[in-house]
Amino acid sequence: MEITLAILGDGSVGKSSLVENFKNDGFTSVYKQTVGCDFYEKKLRIRDNAVSLRLWDIGGQSIHSKNIQQYVSTSSAIFLVYDVTNRESFNNLDDWKRLLTKYGATDKIYLVGNKVDMISQRIVTSKQQIEFIKDNNLCGGMYMSAKTGENVIRAFYQVSGEILGTPLTETELECHDKILKVHVLRDDDQGGRTAFADQIEEEKRLEEEEALRRAQQCTCMIQ
Questions:
Q1: Are residues 195 and 121 in contact, defined by beta-carbon separation less than 8 angstroms?
Q2: Between 195 and 84, the higher pLDDT residue
Q3: What are residue 135's phi and psi, to 5 degrees?
Q4: Whether 96 contacts 135, CB under 8 Å
Q5: Is residue 78 part of a domain?
Q6: What CATH number should be reported for the domain holding residue 119?
Q7: 222 inside domain
């Protein structure tokens, strides 16, 4: 079975970096266009299903590009990416959503907040992401870090399972979690922190500790 994903969003939000992170987990480039869109393919195993995951990395395409329609119209799902440290990239999601509505691709969108590792610089809150997903009736949302690899592999497996109509359980998804390091700020490293940075940092620390605990218990292998 074939699944095609398209990754959209403003420039510099980290779209290509997310793909690069996944490539390091075995993604193989099979074709590269000259118009700024790279095509990759990877073989996945979703339970008993052999899946060919095909990915359009539309990193070089602006929102005004005429080429975008051909990519999104043939995609099984779309990752709409913004940068959690960049308010403008979040505000511009409305324009991207209108574009996808124009192309009739509104029933397969997942919102992705990238760069969650930059805790002290984060501007867009979880509440705002949830509200955007709800207001625009999106399929769902997730957070990732192209730098640390947080949730990157898990997200592709999760969405692939949902497209197949075979949603993976939390236990199955945990096998694709990357073990992350917990970073503790020094006392003198407080510059530029947002009002909710401490809360986000504590939540992230607890999530990372829990992910490490689950990973140590997980005995299944990543395909």
A1: no
A2: 84
A3: -65, -30
A4: no
A5: yes
A6: 3.40.50.300
A7: no
